[in-house]
Design goal:
The complex is a heterodimer of chains A (247) and B (250).
Chain A lengths: L4 H21 L8 H10 L1 H36 L1 H14 L4 H12 L3 H25 L3 H9 L4 H38 L5 H10 L3 H29 L7
Helix pairs in contact in A: 2-10, 3-4, 3-6, 3-8, 3-9, 5-6, 5-8, 6-8, 8-9, 8-10, 9-10
Chain B lengths: L1 E8 L9 E8 L4 E5 L6 H8 L7 E6 L2 E2 L7 E4 L11 H11 L4 H14 L15 H13 L5 E5 L7 H18 L2 E6 L2 H7 L2 E5 L7 E5 L14 H15 L5
Parallel strand pairs in B: 3-8, 3-9, 6-7, 7-8
Antiparallel strand pairs in B: 1-2, 1-4, 4-5, 9-10
Helix pairs in contact in B: 2-3, 2-4
Classes of the chains: A mainly alpha (247), B alpha/beta (250).
């Protein structure tokens, strides 16, 4: 609690400032105040929490899980074979230069308004940090430790399981913490561009009605979800990785 | 026990050889130190023995068998303890046996026995971060023993320790050597350490290494630190230091 005090104080100050500025401007369709957003959250609690939040969580969760699988697979095969690494690395980098907002409508064209068009956008944004971080994790294995294992007669599989995975684990957790907010952003963008439910879609609908507070309410909800998930991952990480400072 | 026959080696990225037609042998149960200036190729000799580097010509034999045909013949202990921070002390000790696919029950027993021998019985479930530098080196030595190899290659194992811990560790190592009856090759650049520990010293003076002069230490075992003050030992130490200093550029 003591550690979080400065951020709590800063948050209250910023929210206070926002409230004052919004009250001065007094145009809720341009800048709704935090209290107006809270009221809106409460008023729209049923569609927000019962319909749109589950839809977004579904896209985010699915996108995140598939991104983790793809990210880990890419990192492992790139670490195993230099030729594959040389072939894949530029393509992976190139995939990140694609403007998501431009390509997302194409996915809608391919997959319609089904969940997969949105999951694909989420994956496109999310798999990258996982691949790169875990791959760097494998590469950060200490050469001396690897050689020590070789002198014990270790096979490539032994080295991978007993040395590379534990070395890459802290990098993996950092990657997941980056990936969670990105997957939520990905899902929201995809929903904004073409969907029938979800917080991104809801926000867009409120925009067309010039309801400023209604635009912000799902955004606040998305941030809250991201913060909660990252906090949970932090707790798991602290339990699993006790050696981060030793490497 | 160990025999080098006309071994020549150069690193692929270098133009010059580190070893050229080097031959020497070590008898079973000996404690031999190799001394030489920094960068002279001491560690390369170890890397060749444990198979991390491949020689261009010549052969290395362990008990008359070429090392190309045998496995698990030597155990390497590096300068840094290289304990895996994510493993407990017990699991770190278990590592070489896991790789040799030894059964869990046997591994457990060996770990408990060796921890008792190195005086760290209560540390089985602790992590490396909970141990002092000297303790970590003791665990690292125990792990080297648990490879089951007869020949131990110790590469400056005490150089990162403070001087008092280092002295205690040297005395401790001699006791362990006597107890386990292993053959030890010990790299150091500390002449006093080499004299105190070894039966004989190999001195590296040329570059590339073509020959290592073998100097017998005129002391029996067990040894005491006061033995180092004997006139003939002081004289030996001074002559070795002056010979090695000729090779040092500053």
């Amino acid at each position: 609690m003591k550690k979080n005090l400065p951020s709590i104080i800063l948050m209250i100050v910023l929210l206070g400032l926002w409230q004052i500025i919004a009250m001065i401007i007094n145009a809720h369709y341009i800048l709704p105040s935090p209290t107006q957003i809270l009221v809106k959250l409460w008023t729209l609690r049923e569609p927000l929490f019962m319909v749109h939040l589950p839809a977004t969580i579904c896209v985010t969760g699915l996108g995140l899980v598939i991104s983790i699988i793809i990210g880990l697979a890419f990192a492992i095969i790139m670490d195993m074979n230099e030729k594959i690494e040389n072939a894949l690395y530029p393509i992976i980098i190139a995939s990140q230069t694609i403007p998501t907002t431009a390509i997302a409508p194409l996915f809608v064209l391919w997959f319609g308004y089904s969940i997969w068009s949105k999951v694909l956008v989420t994956i496109l944004i999310t798999f990258f940090p996982i691949t790169i971080a875990v791959y760097d994790g494998f590469k950060s294995t200490k050469r001396e430790m690897e050689e020590l294992l070789i002198t014990y007669g270790a096979s490539k599989k032994d080295i991978f399981i007993k040395l590379k995975i534990p070395t890459a684990l802290p990098h993996f957790f950092s990657a997941i913490k980056m990936a969670v907010p990105l997957s939520i952003i990905g899902a929201a963008i995809a929903e904004w561009l073409g969907a029938q439910s979800g917080l991104g879609y809801f926000s867009k609908r409120m925009m067309s009605q010039l309801d400023g507070a209604g635009v912000f309410a799902p955004i606040v909800l998305l941030s809250a979800v991201a913060m909660i998930v990252v906090a949970i991952i932090n707790i798991i990480e602290k339990k699993v990785i006790t050696w981060r400072k030793e490497i | 026990m160990l025999k080098f026959k006309d071994v020549t080696f150069k690193y692929p990225e270098d133009d010059y050889a580190v070893l050229k037609d080097l031959s020497f042998s070590v008898e079973k149960g000996e404690f031999i130190s190799i001394i030489g200036a920094s960068g002279c190729g001491k560690s390369t000799i170890f890397r060749l023995i444990n198979g991390l580097e491949k020689m261009q010509s010549g052969e290395i034999f362990i008990n008359e068998d070429s090392i190309q045909n045998i496995k698990n013949y030597s155990a390497y202990m590096p300068q840094k303890d290289l304990l895996f921070p994510w493993r407990t002390i017990g699991d770190n000790l278990s590592l070489p046996m896991e790789i040799q696919k030894i059964k869990k029950s046997e591994r457990e027993k060996s770990v408990i026995d060796i921890l008792k021998e190195v005086g760290l019985s209560h540390y089985k479930d602790k992590f490396p971060k909970d141990l002092s530098g000297g303790m970590k080196q003791r665990v690292s030595f125990a792990r080297t023993l648990l490879t089951g190899s007869e020949l131990l290659l110790l590469d400056e194992p005490f150089s990162a320790l403070d001087s008092l811990t280092r002295i205690s560790m040297q005395e401790w190592l001699l006791e362990e050597w006597k107890h386990f009856n292993k053959t030890i090759l010990f790299i150091t650049h500390d002449v006093e350490e080499a004299i105190f520990l070894s039966k004989s010293i190999f001195v590296i003076q040329d570059n590339p290494i073509t020959y290592m002069e073998k100097i017998e230490i005129p002391l029996g075992y067990p040894r005491r630190r006061s033995d180092l003050q004997k006139p003939e030992i002081v004289e030996l130490k001074e002559s070795l230091i002056s010979r090695l200093r000729q090779k040092v550029d500053i």
